[in-house]
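I hope you will forgive my troubling you with a question about protein structure. Could you please explain, in whatever detail you think fit, how the structure tokens follow from the sequence? Thank you for your consideration; the sequence and its tokens are set out here.
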Amino acid sequence: DDFNLTGLGSQVPYYDYALDIILDVETPQDEMLTEEQQEVVESAAEVLYGLIHQRYIVTHRGMQQMLEKYKRGEFGRCPRVFCEGQAVLPVGQSDVPHKLTVKVFCPRCEDVYYPKSSRKAAADGAYFGTSFPHLLLQAYPELVPPRPTQVYIPRIYGFRLHRKEKDRDPKSPDSKPSAQK
């Protein structure tokens, strides 16, 4: 589908060569590349493949496949105790390649975490994009879990902590005014 390739030529150096590598097309021009150029083309092919993946997973067919993986918990589980093992979805914090690695988004607590798997944690976040989990949950609103009802309350010897230190420092710009007796 050429539509999914629109605009990628300006983002990927040696775009035509990189696309040929992905499509496994051999051309006579490949032999004219130096070893250094060949390495750049292979790197560009990896980026191009990742950016195509980012676009594919938000198509109907791509979402169907990602939905099945999500239902099987293939992306991991939320590490937050009160999310009770909620399945997570991959998310990028940038749509620009080589900026940040992939993270996982928990639809229950609506927070982002590092993936448990070091292999998954090494993947470029741009290859999933910043929109994917949110588009999936918009397309399948029945998948949106209820927010956690429990909140962790810090305690010392069973006594609830009542204020943060910044709330007690009158010089702090963030401090809350204390009631005068």
Strands lie at 89-91, 103-106, 111-113, 155-156, 159-160. The mean pLDDT is 83. The chain is about 35% helix and 10% strand. Residues 92 and 130 are 5 Å apart (CA to CA).
